[in-house]
Design brief:
It is a single chain. The chain has 7 helices and 3 strands. It has a 3-stranded antiparallel β-sheet with strand order 1-3-2.
């Protein structure tokens, strides 16, 4: 098989299409089995692993703008997944923390995505999965 020239690969387009398909599939699974969206699951994972966070820090880690974080956290607060209180160090900011329902939803979401990741690893095979992981990590971290 002839090697595809780099200019013909259209990597960005393929990554964009794959990301959208993966997001849709993950979102459907998460809604069905953990009753949260993929975006909500990302916030839950962050809070599960690192504890309460300022709204700005959530945006930085998840690469979301302030309006998107505000809307997301407001919906999660309404759903009883998180609480929001003024930042004691900066009254202009707010700190977000998990509720018990949020912790439980985060743990269910973690199980759903672990299974999804196992399926992707099986699809790629271990060696290619490692290569994809390294490449996407470089993109995600800007390195």
């Amino acid at each position: 098989m002839a090697r595809v020239r780099a200019v013909d690969r259209r990597l960005y387009l393929l990554i964009e299409i794959a990301a959208r398909r993966l997001h849709r599939d993950a979102d459907a699974r998460l809604r069905k089995h953990a009753t949260v969206s993929a975006s909500q699951a990302a916030v839950l994972f962050l809070l599960l692993r690192r504890g309460e966070r300022r709204m700005g820090a959530i945006g930085e880690v998840l690469a979301l703008g302030a309006p998107a974080v505000t809307g997301l956290v407001t919906r999660m607060e309404t759903a009883g997944l998180v609480t929001k209180h003024p930042d004691p160090d900066d009254r202009r900011g707010a700190v977000v923390a998990l509720t018990e329902a949020g912790r439980e939803a985060g743990e269910r979401a973690d199980a759903v995505l672990r299974e999804f990741n196992s399926e992707l690893t099986a699809l790629f095979g271990e060696e290619d999965a490692d290569t994809v992981h390294r490449a996407l990590t470089r993109i995600a971290t800007g390195g």
